Structures are given as C-alpha cells and as structure tokens.
Amino acid sequence: MPNSPQDDLSGRRALITGANRGLGQEIARAFVAAGASVMLCARGAAELDAVGRELSAMVRDGQVVRWQVADVTEPTQIAEVVEAAIRDLGGLDVLVNNAGVYGPFGAIEDVDWAQWTKAIEINLLGSVIPTRAVLPHFKARRHGKIIQLSGGGATNPLPRISAYAASKAAIVRFAETVAEECRGLGIDVNAIAPGSLNTRLLDDVLAAGPDRVGADFYARAIRQKDDGGVPLTHGADLVVFLASTASNGITGKLISALWDHWRDWPDHLGELSNSDVYTLRRITGRDRGFAWGDK
Q1: Which of 92, 158, 208, 229 is positioned for an S-S bond with 212, CB 3.0–4.6 A?
Q2: Which residues are designated catalytic?
Q3: What's the whole-model pTM score?
Q4: Are 103 and 96 a contacting pair, CB within 8 Å?
C-alpha cells in the first residue's frame, strides 16, 4: 500500500510504453502497487500479455489493467492506444515514454545506416508521437504528467553508440521544450536518468563485444553485470513520484534516480522554477573560471 503522497497513485490513469520487460515492466508493477490504473503497450505480444496478466492479479477495487500491442513509431497505432486508454480507464493522467533501444554499435561511418536511423525513430519519434497523442486530452483537462526516460547518453558522449546518445539528448531537449509550451496549463513534463540497469540493453552491449562498443565501455558493462547494476526499483520509484500529486509544479527537468534528492524537491519549488538547474545547458569558459573565450 502507498505510505505517503509521493507513493500514492490512487485514481490515476497511466499509459506506459515499452511495458513488456525490464524497466517498463517494473514501472508498470510499481504503478499498480501504488493504486493506479494502467494501459500498457509494447511490440512483443507474448511478453506484454504475460505482464498484463501478472498485473491484473494485483489490482484492488476500482483499478483497471489493460494492454495493447502497438509500435510507438506508428501514429495510427498510438492514437488507437490512447483512445482505448481514455475509454477503458475513464481518462488519462500520466504518460510514461519508456520504449527505447541502443541501436547499432560501432564508429558512425561503419554502422548500418538503416539501423542508426531506426534507433533515432524509436527513441525520439517514439516519444514525440505518444506525447502529441495525449496532449490534447491533457490540455482539455488542464492536468497531466509526461515522464520521459532518458539516461547517460543525454549528458555524456558515448563513442560507438552514437544513435542512442544523440536520441537521448534530443528527447531531453524535447521534454524541456514541451514543458515550456505547457507552462501554466497544469501539465508537468520531465525526463529521468534511471542509472545503469541490468536489462536487455546491457545484454546487447555484452553480445556486441569490445571491438564494436569500445574496450572501456565494454569493461564498464562487465563490471555492471557482475555488480548487479542499479536496481530497477530506483527508477520506478522516481517515476511514481513524478506521476503523483506530490511532484506538481516540478517540470522541465532531467532528474537522476540515483544521485538527486528528488523526494525533497517539492520543498524547493520556487528555486527549481526560477533556475536552470537539472537541465541541459552550454558550459562557457566563464562558468569554469577561464578569463578568455567569452564575454
């Protein structure tokens, strides 16, 4: 049972993409445990059906669990999922854009171009399309939460994993921009970095090997596999918080599940709203104490 307003999603209705495995599955499980009704979507029908049945066994009175196969890069399919969510859940309060892939590994001039552009399509357009689909409903109700999964690719170069890095940086700026478009409308839009997770994406890195992903990145992946990585519950807990009323007014931020004291942020709404902290910004020479290079 939820033990604080930050963990209580009673009465909330959420659409979660990529919900058939890994972090998406953990987020869906946390939402149902917190009292939410959920619509789950993913491309893998068998896995999605198994997750839907698991969560259906967890529901309490008034909760609804639905699931529907859909490709986040197909606007028609996503429109149908959003329509079904509004109909079957009685409305929609939260969108969690979780679906994503690493894409091809290797130097940019060597990777398969079709795979590279497909990764951009899934990670970037696969977040833009669901966002476009839910915003009319959120704006009409003057209420909504959009939570975007990002990661280390947004804030650090990732040599040999360029499609992932480029798309993750792009969706953070997209989230910041939509947050500004929705300012004053009761709609909060944030991106999160869940940490280094031992999911299918890590398995992809290990399968690719050091020649394709780079020796340093591969060595970090081996250590992460051995250490167990960041628990999936860290990211899921942050998503629950951002979906709750406790986070109202926190918007346009990139939040680390592991390093940021986000549970305390509601006490600092004024400072958060009037600062560019926890956002993607250019670092100038003056920011680093250099007396040259900029005014």
Answers
A1: 208
A2: 150, 164, 168
A3: 0.91
A4: no
